[in-house]
Recover the amino acids of this structure.
């Protein structure tokens, strides 16, 4: 036994002992202060009218749950449903419910209540309750139904006396619509009580006000504008980014009315320098996009060109004797969209096209930002096209080739010109431990805990 | 793109993955050689070659392969070689671009679940044809960290998707292993160097488990084992087949090795001990709420070390309750009798925020703690650390930050290496 170095090691370690004095295992207790832009007037996961989807979804996921959730690879995993199976043809599905789950008011989750919730969210579906299960019948094969069940709008809720009650890890303690929401942890939550005692969410705060609150220590979790992430991190803040999950695109309300219209749209698509917009306007807050779905989700996104090609744009423009003057609409409340729209007008001019900014919704072409609401590529594409007002994608099968073919067909309609996929970002205080977010930027607050919390 | 959603099956096995050899990876230290994941790309290469040949037909093509994925360059080279081989079988031969009837650009890409190999085929002035194949992503190789002259030895026992709360090894021929998980206790037998599942006994509980669930196995002499979980106590049958009787219980959990006879009450809806001790350390029957405790035998008394919920380390000797000063310890500590140094060391988890964790040996001479080893590193946070029944080794469970799987290790200390 050689002990020569032993005392020395002990002594040196004593000197090196740090002042850190916290424990690494999660602590129960504490109140988390959150600030966000979303200012919903009501808390209902079926409400599709919310403009700030990310923040709203993050709030709703604390209160409401779905039968199925998706893992980091976009694969369905059990949530309120313990298992599921389809009958041959994938039109009729049975979801067996997890036992012992209750709503926030302690009422048990029953097949009847689940069926009622799903029927309301999906009037076209036939939903039946069965013993410990619900059965869903669709008009056509629905191989992606489990992933579809993970969409927020399919959250299981009980509506009673004007209230919407969920099964999630937190329950509403106080609610000043659009301004402030206080949530408290549910002791009897089936997935285990969250570590935090409560969460206070200030709503309707712009990015700047959120950052001020963060720097003053009044908020421990805030949203950060994509174009501000690098600066926020460079200033020493802990900033977390999602994968690019929001599509910024130009959308036409209708298909090209003529060959000239098609050439003009192609010229516009080729004239836009997406890399410049991303690097300068968004400070690297996204990725140039030639396709609707991001490359990390499909693996083939690089096939859709995202590079500016002014020569080809001018050639396409030359096919049009008299280019029409188009109005370009954008969200006047979104300063980034305004700058991007201005940049697009300049790029179009270089190609010989005429665009004019407009704030009305009746513009010829609109600059939109649409979140991708699922990590399942098939479901994401379906929901995305619905939000863009495009025809539903037609999948001939479930292979990656079929996905590519469906997406390519949508792009060939020339109804949409993808520009960028944007990341969502947030700043998190170093006192918030166990923090994580999913690839799509959803916050996993039930697993978060505060270093300064009390047991 | 194959996925669960596209191949509808009854998915109950997802909740019980340990029953399926597909989802569990079991190893013992005897087999500490690096895990080798066979990179056999023949099948996808064959599929892609068939699709390419269907588009080009036999003849001369120019082939370019670009790697856009996480595959290594060696794998990319191997894929290119196999692709050429498969295409040659189909009558495709390779020439430079200026002599080719078609040019084929293959991009090795990937998405969330699969490698996606895309071939863009250009023939004359036609629109390019795009074909692709998808192949499931490989798990990241669980490469062992290089071991230097560490005194803490890690032995990988068991890996699983589901949380592992504790593991106990039963000596005998054959050797058995008991794994405590949130909903089951699973018994394995070592056969031909691999753990084979024998039985799984469900754990019944009437209340939801708390988050950061903890649990402990204690081997017994008159029956196989007891399992302690928050608010639940389970006792195994004495003979095969394995049976488990579980009941709601606030009984205190044994802490430290069995020989020390100290138990503590665990918060039934929390992840820590309340601080109430049974029967106590000398006259001391309570201390601060704590996550873990470790005994250190002294000549004339027993020193108990508590990693308290407030981040402090308390030293109880039966009379006084002292703070150990500022230490960079995590929440989990155990003591092991190594015979090295002053005989007993404390193994303590680290206190960093990063994705990795460590366990380091400390000695407490007088009331001052000092490091006694280099840290043993884990590729993820340590979620459980318990002394094994004989007190000479410990079980550590970590959640691999790359794979998301739980990995159970036996930790042992050797002297002066």
């Amino acid at each position: 036994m050689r002990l020569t170095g032993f005392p020395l090691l002990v002594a040196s370690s004593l000197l090196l002992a740090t002042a850190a004095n916290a424990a690494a295992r999660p602590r129960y207790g504490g109140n988390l202060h959150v600030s966000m832009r979303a200012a919903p007037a009501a808390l209902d996961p079926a409400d599709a009218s919310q403009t700030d989807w990310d923040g709203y979804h993050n709030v709703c996921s604390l209160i409401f749950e779905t039968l199925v959730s998706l893992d980091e690879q976009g694969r369905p995993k059990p949530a309120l449903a313990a298992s599921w199976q389809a009958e041959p043809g994938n039109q009729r599905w049975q979801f067996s419910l997890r036992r012992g789950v209750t709503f926030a008011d302690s009422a048990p989750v029953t097949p009847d209540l689940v069926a009622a919730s799903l029927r309301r969210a999906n009037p076209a579906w036939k939903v039946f309750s069965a013993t410990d299960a619900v059965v869903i019948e669709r008009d056509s094969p629905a191989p992606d139904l489990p992933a579809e069940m993970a969409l927020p709008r399919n959250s299981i809720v009980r509506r009673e006396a004007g209230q919407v009650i969920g099964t999630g890890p937190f329950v509403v303690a106080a609610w000043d619509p659009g301004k402030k929401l206080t949530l408290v942890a549910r002791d009897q939550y089936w997935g285990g009580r969250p570590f935090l005692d409560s969460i206070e969410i200030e709503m309707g705060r712009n990015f700047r006000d959120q950052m001020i609150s963060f720097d003053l220590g009044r908020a421990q979790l805030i949203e950060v504008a994509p174009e501000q992430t690098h600066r926020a991190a460079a200033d020493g803040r802990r900033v977390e980014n999602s994968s690019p999950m929001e599509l910024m695109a130009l959308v036409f309300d209708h298909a090209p009315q003529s060959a000239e219209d098609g050439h003009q749209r192609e010229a516009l698509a080729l004239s836009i320098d997406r890399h410049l917009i991303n690097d300068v306007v968004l400070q690297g807050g996204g990725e140039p996009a030639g396709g609707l779905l991001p490359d990390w989700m499909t693996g083939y996104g690089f096939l859709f060109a995202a590079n500016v090609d002014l020569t080809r744009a001018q050639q396409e423009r030359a096919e049009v004797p008299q280019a029409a003057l188009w109005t370009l609409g954008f969200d006047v409340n979104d300063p980034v969209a305004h700058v991007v729209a201005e940049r697009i007008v300049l790029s179009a001019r270089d190609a010989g096209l005429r665009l004019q900014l407009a704030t009305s919704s009746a513009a010829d072409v609109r600059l939109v930002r649409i979140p991708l609401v699922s990590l399942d590529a098939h479901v994401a594409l379906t929901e995305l096209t619905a939000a863009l007002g495009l025809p539903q994608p037609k999948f001939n099968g479930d292979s990656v080739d079929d996905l590519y073919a469906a997406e390519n067909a949508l792009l060939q309609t020339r109804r949409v010109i993808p520009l960028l996929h944007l990341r969502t970002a947030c700043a998190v205080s170093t006192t918030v431990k166990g923090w994580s977010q999913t690839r799509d930027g959803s916050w996993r607050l039930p697993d978060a805990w505060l270093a300064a919390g009390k047991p | 793109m194959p996925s669960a959603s596209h191949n509808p099956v009854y998915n109950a096995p997802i909740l019980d993955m340990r029953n399926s050899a597909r989802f569990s990876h079991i190893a013992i230290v005897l087999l500490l050689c690096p895990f080798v994941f066979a990179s056999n790309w023949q099948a996808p290469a064959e599929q892609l070659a068939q699709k390419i040949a269907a588009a080009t037909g036999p003849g001369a093509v120019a082939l370019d392969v670009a790697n856009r994925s996480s595959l290594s360059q060696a794998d990319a080279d191997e894929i290119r070689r196999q692709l050429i081989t498969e295409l040659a079988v189909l009558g495709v031969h390779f020439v430079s671009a200026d002599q080719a009837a078609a040019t084929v650009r293959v991009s090795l890409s990937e998405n969330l679940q699969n490698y996606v190999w895309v071939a863009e085929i250009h023939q004359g002035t036609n629109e390019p044809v795009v074909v692709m194949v998808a192949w499931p992503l490989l798990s990241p190789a669980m490469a062992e960290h290089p071991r230097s002259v560490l005194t803490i030895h890690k032995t990988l026992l068991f890996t699983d998707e589901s949380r592992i709360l504790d593991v106990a090894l039963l000596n005998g021929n054959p050797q058995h292993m008991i794994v405590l998980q949130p909903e089951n206790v699973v018994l394995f037998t070592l056969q031909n160097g691999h753990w084979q599942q024998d039985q799984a006994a469900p754990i019944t509980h009437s209340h939801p488990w708390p988050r950061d669930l903890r649990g402990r196995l204690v081997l017994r002499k008159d029956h196989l084992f007891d399992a302690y979980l928050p608010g639940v106590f389970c006792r195994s049958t004495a003979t095969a087949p394995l049976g488990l009787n579980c009941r709601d219980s606030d009984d205190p959990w044994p802490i430290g090795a069995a020989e020390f006879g100290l138990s503590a009450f665990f918060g039934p809806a929390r992840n820590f001990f309340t601080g109430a001790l049974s029967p106590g350390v000398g006259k001391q029957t309570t201390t601060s709420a704590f996550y873990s405790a470790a005994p250190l035998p002294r000549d004339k008394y027993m020193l108990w070390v508590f990693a308290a919920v407030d981040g402090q380390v308390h030293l109880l000797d039966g009379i006084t309750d002292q703070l150990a000063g500022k230490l960079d310890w995590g929440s989990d500590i155990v003591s092991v009798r190594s015979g090295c140094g002053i005989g007993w060391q404390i193994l303590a988890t680290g206190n960093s925020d990063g994705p990795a964790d460590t366990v380091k040996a400390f000695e407490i001479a007088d009331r001052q703690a000092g490091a006694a080893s280099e840290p043993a590193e884990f590729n993820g946070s340590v979620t459980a650390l318990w002394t094994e029944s004989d007190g000479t080794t410990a079980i550590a469970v970590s959640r691999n930050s790359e794979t998301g799987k739980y990995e159970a290790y036996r930790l042992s200390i050797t002297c002066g290496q």
